[in-house]
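Bumping my old thread because nobody answered last time. Still need a sequence for this structure:
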């Protein structure tokens, strides 16, 4: 299961992910991202991965795509920080 919470202020867009970024949940995040993420503004985009417990290959690819789009990730866990360093 993956919980996706998105908030937006006048200066930043924040996504908080909780759970497992695997399988169909990767597709759900990708769908939400394409539908909701605003590329036409100067909003700073932050994705909080502190409560993500597992990421599969599809999830890794999506995180790389998001990174290329300028996303800043927050991750304090060793596992997720290691994944982000591999991108």
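Sorry it took so long. Here it is:
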């Amino acid at each position: 299961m993956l919980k996706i919470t998105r908030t937006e202020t006048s200066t930043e867009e924040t996504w908080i992910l909780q759970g497992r970024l695997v399988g169909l949940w990767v597709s759900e995040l990708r769908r939400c991202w394409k539908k909701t993420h605003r590329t036409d503004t100067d909003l700073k985009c932050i994705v909080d991965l502190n409560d993500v417990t597992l990421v599969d290959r599809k999830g890794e690819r999506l995180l790389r795509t998001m990174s290329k789009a300028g996303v800043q990730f927050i991750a304090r866990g060793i596992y997720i920080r290691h994944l982000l360093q591999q991108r």
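The first strand starts at residue 2 and ends at 8. Let me know if any region looks off to you.
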